[in-house]
Records
---
Amino acid sequence: MTNVAGAPGAQEPAAAEPAAPRKGSESLHYARRNPKLLIGLGIVLAFLLLGLIGPLFVDHGPNEYVGPQSQPPNGEFWLGTTSFGQDIWAQFVFGVRTTFLIGVFGGGVAFVIGTAVGFVAGYKGGIVDEILNMITNVVLVLPAMVVLIVAIAYLDARGVFVQGLFIGLTSWPWAARAVRSQALSLATRDYVDLARLSGRRTGKIITTEIAPNMSSYLVMSFILLFGGAILIAAGLDFIGLGPSDGVSLGLMLESAVAWSALQFGMWWWFVPPGLGITVIVSSLYILNVGLDEVFNPKLREL
């Protein structure tokens, strides 16, 4: 996991508002010069664009039988066809869209729960912190993949958002603990004490005084949760517990294995989805490392 605890956005007090524009322009300057950030962001955006626009140029469904069986890549079928004559290119572009949907939704659910628990525990402290920390530790030690397999296996109909919801409900504890540690530090700052003495509500203090000073940390945490949700979803898809009414990169791999694509030398069936998952997740982590170097002065390459 990328170390994001040193991000200056999570430690600089909001009282230094006059320096905010300068710090923003400085971060933008280093962002433009950071190859990891530019490469990671470029690849992620390219796949996102493919998932959004690609399906618009496919005139048939991803699971329709539209061509000859076991056809290698050619001018008509760019990624070939399956053993049943399905267009693998169509499955791939729809699968990329599903990958981003599951990443955003599953990672988003985990992010919302984790940050809410972490902020409240870190700001409130005392008995509230102990109770929330206990709940976090209980969920943290649960075998998440086993819980997901059991829960999803008993559902009659499985969709992208149901899968994402279960992933989010089991992936938030580490984010909660990380946010809590940062919130504990910021909660003792003078500007937070002044806001508390002025009679502001807890939610207002957290959203206006604490969270803005952790913005870079929160962005990087979401990226990690995003990538983690994609990997968990791919694992569930590969064992046959993916969406029952759609297509995903993980389900493409599962179908390729189930119908012996490797044994028959049909590399065009399993290489694109496997490579797609690997490249997307790797790019997210490269992007995260680049952001860490931009926001953390100690890691910047001069």
---
Amino acid sequence: MSRAVVTPLRRPERSTSARQPARPRKTVALGNAAAPDSLAARLFLLAYDPERGRLTARSKLGKLLRAAILVDLQLSGHLDDDNGRARLTTRASAPVDPVVGGVLAELRAVGPRRWRRWIDRRGGVTVRQVRDELARAHLIRVEPYRVLGLFPSARITLRHPLVRRHILQSARDTLRPSRLVSRVDLRDAAIVVLASTADLRTVVTKDQRTRHKDRLAQLAVRVGPVVPALKKSLQQAQASAGG
């Protein structure tokens, strides 16, 4: 006796005109992982070289991340430029990112100072804080180990390489001549300009810096006073190391 084949019933399709609450779309291309909102966190991911499996530009990374946080605070309306100094606004809302919020608390405790003053402060601490936040967000894996069995260090690997690729592509798209400088997203512009200033070649190669020199200068004007402050800070650090 043959068995009856039971065909499962299909649920009726919902009408597209039905009033249903909109659901947030999942970013499938990023492996269901969201890119971090903080510019410093994004630049940390971009400083990671997937081919070498390690962070690059370590000596400059602290200053670069501090500069990124200052740009973040300026773009969010927490800071204004006051004749070359970072001045707090009356905006009351606290930043969502705890590292950005910590830098804002530093500024509140001290008061207006030149932008470079804040770039030069606590670079190593900031790098570790940004790294730890990325680890908590499961975007990187941090594995402690000892160099030569003696010196403590940490091995970093990407959990979601597509997130980094997406951030990199958005930043590099700002260099396309077909896009008006005035219409480029300022956060993407900040990433590519800060990376270029710090010679972060995992973002902007030497050849790209040469070919897009004028456009990078135009984007830097839009990003604001943090860019020249970062440049001076890096130049001074290089001169001190050379001397």
